Amino acid sequence: MKQLIYLFFLLSIVAVSAQESENPLSNEIQIDSIKVVDKKYREDQFYVSVTYNLLGNKPDGVSQSGFSSGFHFGFIRDMPLNKKRNVALGLGLGFSTNSFNQTLFISENNGSYDYTVLDDVSFTKNKFTTYLVEFPIEFRWRTSTEKEFDFWRIYSGIKLGYVLYNSSKFKGSPNDISLSNINDFNKLQYGFTLSAGYSNVNFHFYYALNDIFDSNAKVNSTGNHVAMNAIKIGLIFYIL
């Protein structure tokens, strides 16, 4: 979109220059029309984010293995709070999928779930995945103006998420095990967010303020609650 706008301006300037000697009055009108700008612009944006997912507060013996990724996309409505329109509130709606490769094995036992740290077990995959609908709420500061399409930004806030679906997959000895809709996942997930950078590509950080699992999830060997939270680090792309 920005390239098309630049091309339009370039072609307009070339046309004005070509007509300057023939019709000065027409030239003046063209220049005035170029100066027309939107004084009440908004930074409404679609966003796409790719993150590397970490686990905080892991139980003793649990480690992450392989690459744990997250993919996030949605739309944020921008509501400027000042006359310069460089401070705003952003409210959004999005979708997120997150995988966590780690060494905490989840199995089903008569309607409940067991959580076992994998020590001497041979396996090629052990991960759980969540799919969420998300509601980002951002306090937004930027250096944008009605004429600037590339600018510095710092967006901070919170993100609320509701888990629509979850799954767990284990591939190893003695049997492969797949589970879904595990009741011990917290349906509501929420955390602090920070996005900062220049133009379309920005650094993105998310730190969960509550646990992935509820109080029913306990490590078999110790009886301690699986109090892991999600930490996501990556890039976010804003599309006007």
Automatic annotation (TrEMBL):
Residues 30-214 form the Outer membrane protein beta-barrel domain. Residues 1-18 form the signal peptide. It comes from the Bacteria. Keywords: Signal. InterPro entries: Beta-barrel_OMP_2. Pfam families: OMP_b-brl_2. This is Porin family protein.
